[in-house]
Design goal:
- The complex is a heterodimer of chains A (172) and B (430).
- Chain A contains 8 helices and 4 strands.
- Chain A is an alpha+beta fold.
- In chain A, a hairpin with a 2-residue loop joins strand 3 and strand 4.
- The longest helix of chain A has 17 residues.
- Chain A is globular and about 50 Å long.
- In chain A, 37% of the residues are buried.
- With 430 residues, chain B is an alpha/beta fold.
- Chain B has 3 domains: 222 residues, Rossmann fold, CATH 3.40.50.11540; 83 residues, Roll (Ubiquitin-like (UB roll)); 87 residues, NADH-ubiquinone oxidoreductase 51kDa subunit, iron-sulphur binding domain (de novo design (two linked rop proteins), Up-down Bundle).
- Chain B has 19 helices and 11 strands.
- In chain B, the strands form 3 sheets. A 5-stranded mixed β-sheet of chain B has the order 6-5-11-8-9. A 4-stranded parallel β-sheet of chain B has the order 3-2-1-4, sandwiched between helices.
- In chain B, a hairpin with an 8-residue loop joins strand 8 and strand 9.
- The two termini of chain B are 43 Å apart.
- Classes of the chains: A alpha+beta (172), B alpha/beta (430).
- Chains A and B meet through helix 2, helix 4 and helix 5 of A and strand 3, strand 5, strand 11 and helix 15 of B.
Chain lengths: 172, 430
């Protein structure tokens, strides 16, 4: 039985044909795997090698160099807050701290939130600082108050499909 | 006082629009809007149907004096002319790996007028003889990726891309390629490595990409803004373009202003526009009436200028260079009184030590040490000799590596400790 889902297999095959060399398809394929499973495991790398003829060494080189690829199972929502100079000048650190505290507080109270927080490098939205991403959604001018409201908003939503897949795979 | 062109007096920035003419239009990204309101694809028609040869296009862009808008300011037409003539695979890649702290202009172009980029790319590809081009875009730019993909699809559907564009026999295909989080991929050879599916580590030059680039074939890497302005230059001619800006820095440029400013945003200004007038009048000055302490004029890699040094600066390559910094990507970061420069240093060095690709020792170790020392100082644990070591480390980083990320960390560090040494004093032991 093929390792990847039918849908993902189709996407991978599309990328393999799309560029001048097979190797160029590694970055987009890893994005696609992550979009479905929320992170990229050793088994995923091996399957890409065995089933699609991409070199595991080449894949690992890419996987470990670029920061967007997750190499361990993440929480359903990644709250990424820009900490570079422009956002920092407008209080990004306070936003990061407020989110971190909220997550820790909830953890202590036994109601863990589906969030993890990261201070990340420039998100290219310096005029609308502090800029943030929650998974693929951009939110700008995120003050600590706005950040806490966003946690509430996302926390009450249905979990993203990738997070559900990720949890299901962990049980296997 | 700087010499200011008379025509700038009494005029607002939005009277100088070349690239952002569609700003504020509700459907600015649609092909229909671009065609109707912005002379869309008329330049491509002029090139392909009006009998312009590839050399004519290169010469027009050369004559306009357009300089690369990514940061280095290298003349765009000249860059194109380095590509070997004749048949064979060649590539054009748009550098949309916008990641220099302070810079968000390319995002804004794709938000307002992505078709300008697509049209500019087709024209540039015709000029250098490229049959395939890519937009290499940061993986985090989820919206911008969609906007670029949509514009490309619309261009295919309308026959501006394909095997026989406008019946001219010119064949060109375009695709978007997404990065995965690495500032270094904004360096052109690092970008090419990444597009080849490798670590985004820069390569030694020469050979330059124009001779040996993507997959070993001649490749031109241009910034988004440099390409997006090309249709206007073709439509209106180099002389019209040179009416804007200064003699050595012709045209307009997008400036992104950030930090505690009343009206932050992306502005199109003629080069040579006075910096302080821009900050105080057009951008409404600093938030809460704060006083200006310093300005980083061209993205975080540009050495800091004190408020006093900014007084007579105009926004063009030469004026900022003679003040001791660089225009870079046009990202103006405003630093108010009350923010300590030791903290600024730590923040900047944190960025560079994180983003160094690790290939060259002076950069990998140097950026790491600059970050460690600046952290050490902020905690009050550093001695004077450690503070002075910043200069030694920075001097050993300059000009000793494959790409300029190392210099981009060393220069701002040196400028901060040279201009604001007194602010470090209270932190030092002994």
């Amino acid at each position: 039985m093929p390792y990847f889902s039918q849908e993902l297999t189709k996407i991978i095959e599309g990328y393999l044909k799309r560029y001048e060399t097979k190797r160029s398809s590694i970055l987009p394929i890893l994005h696609a795997v992550q979009d479905e499973k929320d992170w990229i495991s050793d088994q995923d790398v091996d399957a890409l090698d065995k089933e699609f003829g991409l070199s595991a060494v080449d894949i690992r080189e890419v996987l470990t160099f670029y920061t967007m690829y997750r190499k361990s199972p993440p929480k359903p929502y990644r709250f990424e807050i820009c900490k570079s100079i422009s956002c920092w000048l407008l209080g990004a650190n306070e936003t990061i701290l407020a989110v971190r505290k909220e997550i820790e507080k909830a953890e202590k109270e036994g109601r863990p939130l589906p969030f993890e927080v990261h201070g990340v490098e420039c998100l290219g939205q310096c005029g609308y600082a502090p800029s943030t991403l929650i998974n693929k959604d951009r939110h700008n001018n995120v003050t600590p108050e706005k950040a806490l409201a966003l946690i509430k908003e996302y926390g009450s939503k249905e979990l993203p499909k990738a997070a559900i897949n990720c949890a299901a795979n962990a049980k296997k | 006082m700087p010499v200011i062109k008379n025509e700038y007096l009494g005029r607002k920035p939005d009277e100088f629009r070349i690239l952002l003419g569609l700003e504020g239009h509700p459907d600015s990204r649609n092909l229909k809007t671009y065609l109707e309101k912005s002379n869309g694809y008329k330049a491509l028609e002029k090139v392909l149907k009006g009998g312009m040869s590839p050399d004519d296009v290169i010469n027009t862009v050369k004559a306009s004096g357009l300089r690369g808008r990514g940061g280095a300011g290298f003349p765009t037409g000249l860059k194109w002319s380095f590509v070997p003539k004749g048949q064979g695979e060649k590539y054009l890649i748009t550098n949309f790996d916008e990641g220099e702290p302070g810079t968000y202009k390319d995002c804004y172009i794709s938000e307002v007028t992505p078709h300008s980029l697509v049209e500019g790319k087709i024209i540039a590809s015709y000029a250098i003889g490229a049959q395939k081009s890519y937009i290499y875009i940061r993986g985090e730019f989820y919206n911008e990726i969609k906007w670029c993909e949509k514009a490309i699809q619309e261009a295919y559907d309308a026959g501006y891309l394909g095997d026989n564009i406008m019946g001219s026999g010119f064949k060109h295909h375009m695709d978007v390629y997404c990065g995965a989080g690495a500032y270094i991929c904004g360096e052109e050879t690092g970008l090419i490595s990444s597009l080849e599916g490798k670590k985004g580590q820069p390569k030694l030059k020469p050979p330059f990409p124009a001779v040996k680039g993507y997959l070993g074939k001649p490749t031109v890497v241009n910034n988004v803004e440099s390409l997006a302005v090309v249709p206007w230059i073709i439509n209106n001619g180099p002389d019209a373009y040179k009416k804007y800006g200064t003699e050595k820095s012709p045209g307009t440029k997008l400036f992104n202003i950030s930090g505690p400013i009343v009206h932050p945003g992306c502005y199109e200004l003629p080069l040579g526009y006075p910096l302080m007038r821009f900050i105080n009048e057009d951008c409404g000055g600093l938030l809460d009436g704060k006083k200006l302490k310093a300005v980083i004029p061209g993205g975080s890699s540009a050495p800091v200028l004190t408020a006093k040094e900014c007084e007579n600066v105009t926004l063009d390559y030469e004026s900022i260079a003679s003040a001791g910094s660089m225009l870079g990507s046009g990202a103006i970061i405003v630093i108010p009184e009350g923010v300590g420069m030791p903290s600024i240093l730590e923040n900047l060095m944190d960025f560079y030590s994180h983003e160094s690709c690790g290939q060259c020792t002076p950069c990998r170790e140097g950026t790491g040490w600059l970050y460690k020392i600046s952290k050490h100082i902020l905690k009050g644990n550093a001695t004077r000799s450690e503070f002075e070591r910043i200069n030694m480390v920075a001097n050993n980083m300059r000009g000793k590596t494959i790409c300029v990320l190392s210099d981009a960390a060393a220069d701002p560090a040196r400028a901060i400790i040279a201009k604001y040494a007194h602010e470090f004093e209270p932190y030092l032991k002994g």
